[in-house]
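Example 3.2
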Amino acid sequence: MPDRSDAPHRLDPTGADQHAANERLRARGPAVPVVLPGEVAAVAVTRYEELKEFLTHPDVAKNARHFTALREGAIPPGWPLTTIATVESMTTADGNDHRRLRGLVTQVLTPRRIEGLRPRVEELTTRLLHALGEAALDRETGTSGVVDLREHFALPLPMAVIGELLGVDSDLQEQLHQLSDLIVSTTTTPERVLAANRAMADVLGIVVARRRAAPGDDLTSALLAAQAEDGDRLTDRELVGTLLLMVIAGHETTLNLITNAVRALCTHPEQLALVRAGKADWGDVVEETLRYDSPVSFFPFRYPTCDLAVGDAVIPRGTPVLVSYTAAGRDERAYGPDASRFDVTRRPTVRHLSFGHGPHYCLGAALARLEATTALAALFDRYPDLALAVPDHDLPRHPSFVGNSTETLPVRLHPEPASR
């Protein structure tokens, strides 16, 4: 039954039942009052057309100085979404500041550079697939057992790639992932949030110090060079904030994308058969996964700079607004009555919004697509009988309504041996 209550919807910080909740939210309207952890009032924009317009509206800002409750001191210390809201980077900048910070990154993250990473992505994928088989091996029986594909494949590939792009040495990469997990989690306690922020700043400080002492062909070195050339182009806080953004966005999104795609294919074997029959390709799989089960769900924040009408609702100035990519991806108004069906042959007339829209469109979209298509093609080529090892409904959720995926993805690489 649609939720027609006028009471604000309380977002579940564990991320449970996101798609069912999204359906209820879309039924209530394009902009719905929600309650965030810490009893913080916000609004979620959930329908495709209204979300697309909202993302480019001239009266919508991203800088947290427009966040009324934060400015007035009403946000509790250690609030789990503070870091995402206030980090000094292009994701929280507007106008000239946004263009300046984005421009520094685009000088390095060019289409040519991304395409040049293809051989390295293929090499890493091959190596990880071999390690995946080793991790699944039951040493006592010599047969392949169960392995967590998320931990052993979907995570290390984008983490290694973004590590190389940023110049992050391998000894720091696992720590950065663990801290990223804490920062994007919406169940983290205030004490752990504050500790994670301090630890992340310390680790990124080490990254900066190492690249300052030994520059390389990486984004951190390029940002340091730009800062040395003109200190007004990039402050120390903006440097660390940009690295934080790139670490989180550069691997968490692709990690969830690969996980969600494998899960969708395993639960829709007829769709995998269409790919194998040549009726769809791996690019189609990635695009449909991005629409059907976006790796990012409720992304914080944007703020109306005046009372803003969205559909039949009015969002008061200074209200923190979450954009719901998972909700928009299954909006029947945009994708038809079968919007909730996974279909790799779908040819929608509108593009999904999972990488955003407008000035803040994700700079790493092409890299995520490269990594995901390479990973999926190689994975199912090497392990054509790959299957979930537990029922889909038993997969534990990643504890966040920002990220959208499962915490683990246990699979069997080969058919389970017949019992004797």
